[in-house]
């Protein structure tokens, strides 16, 4: 029996990591990789494969199946979810026919509320926690561009089967994915959330990329204010983040390409739906719940909610 892994969402995250998996297991007798895609992306991948462009190389991969039809996809052992957060419910409902009670679901979204939302849909399934650090985006349908050397994937669960998680980790490592099966996964997810929520909110509100924010004192002040608010919220929630989390996060940003921005900022500029609820509003709502003031997040939410 092959281990069947579905990749739901072929954006910068799902396309890149799904590409590595599809390349490694293209002719495998033990692992089968399925891309769950629709529309033009499905057509392009079926005809030409998925292209992943990196700084010094590129690859074209052909998964075993490319479809959005549950009857064609079949039952899955693992489902890796990497759509936008506003598509969580609709995308997962569309593949309900592929999910059995034994399917392990790994969300790789920007927000921190995905496991709770997925468990509401599939209460009998093991839903892991996960996050990634990577600079990648869709260049065109079925073409992913990944920039820079930095790429890390963290996943884990306090309650899920360790045997199943170790099996998935072995598959990741065989595909040369820089992954960590983390024992303190909630803290790892929140460290990423501190980084991405502040970055997405600041870039979208200021309409500036990383280099512009770091070089402009007023913009940098907005970004740092966001970091202080979200890290205070994390502390009140009882999360054990590093004492120097703010400095660590700033240093991570300084290592990013100057022209990099957030996917939310790109969506705002393009006039597309964007992840305001998961990356800005969630912090505001949790602040109200835990009586933590988040005035900068509130100001940004008030402005961007008029656009979204």
From TrEMBL:
Tree of life domain: Bacteria
Domain Ketopantoate reductase N-terminal residue range list: 5-157
Assigned GO CC terms: cytoplasm
Keyword Oxidoreductase assigned: yes
Catalytic activity entry: (R)-pantoate + NADP(+) = 2-dehydropantoate + NADPH + H(+)
Gene3D superfamilies: N-(1-d-carboxylethyl)-l-norvaline Dehydrogenase, domain 2, NAD(P)-binding Rossmann-like Domain
GO biological-process terms attached to the record: pantothenate biosynthetic process
Family annotation (SUPFAM superfamilies): 6-phosphogluconate dehydrogenase C-terminal domain-like (SSF48179), NAD(P)-binding Rossmann-fold domains (SSF51735)
Pfam families: ApbA, ApbA_C
EC nos: 1.1.1.169
Positions of the Ketopantoate reductase C-terminal domain: 185-306
The entry's keywords: NADP, Oxidoreductase, Pantothenate biosynthesis
Pathway connected to this protein: Cofactor biosynthesis; (R)-pantothenate biosynthesis; (R)-pantoate from 3-methyl-2-oxobutanoate: step 2/2
Oxidoreductase listed as a keyword: yes
GO MF terms, alphabetically ordered: 2-dehydropantoate 2-reductase activity
Family: Belongs to the ketopantoate reductase family.
Cited function: Catalyzes the NADPH-dependent reduction of ketopantoate into pantoic acid.
Protein name, per record: 2-dehydropantoate 2-reductase
Protein source organism: Flavobacterium faecale
């Amino acid at each position: 029996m092959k281990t069947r892994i579905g990749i739901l969402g072929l954006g910068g995250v799902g396309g890149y990591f799904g590409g590595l998996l599809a390349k490694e297991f293209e002719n495998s007798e033990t692992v089968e990789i399925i891309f769950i895609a629709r529309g033009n992306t499905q057509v392009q991948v079926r005809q030409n494969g998925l292209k992943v462009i990196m700084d010094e190389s590129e690859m074209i991969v052909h998964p075993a199946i490319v479809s959005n039809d549950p009857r064609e996809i079949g039952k899955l052992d693992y489902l890796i979810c990497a759509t936008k957060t506003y598509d969580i419910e609709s995308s997962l409902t569309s593949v309900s026919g592929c999910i059995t009670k034994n399917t392990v679901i790994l969300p790789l979204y920007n927000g921190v509320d995905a496991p709770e939302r997925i468990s509401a849909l599939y209460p009998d399934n093991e839903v892991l926690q996960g996050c990634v650090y990577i600079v990648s985006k869709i260049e065109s349908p079925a073409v992913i561009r990944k920039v820079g050397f930095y790429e890390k994937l963290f996943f884990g669960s306090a309650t899920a089967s360790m045997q199943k998680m170790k099996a998935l980790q072995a598959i990741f490592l065989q595909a040369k994915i820089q992954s960590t099966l983390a024992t303190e996964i909630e803290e790892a997810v929140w460290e990423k959330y501190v980084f991405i929520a502040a970055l997405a909110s600041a870039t979208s509100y200021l309409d500036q990329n990383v280099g512009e924010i770091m070089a402009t004192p007023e913009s940098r002040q907005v970004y740092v204010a966001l970091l202080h608010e979200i890290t205070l919220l994390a502390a009140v929630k009882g999360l054990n983040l590093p004492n120097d989390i703010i400095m660590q996060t700033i240093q991570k940003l300084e290592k990013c390409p100057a022209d990099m921005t957030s996917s939310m900022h790109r969506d705002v500029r393009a006039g597309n739906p964007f992840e305001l609820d998961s990356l800005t509003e969630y912090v505001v709502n949790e602040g109200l719940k835990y009586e933590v003031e988040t005035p900068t997040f509130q100001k940004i939410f008030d402005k961007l909610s008029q656009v979204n």
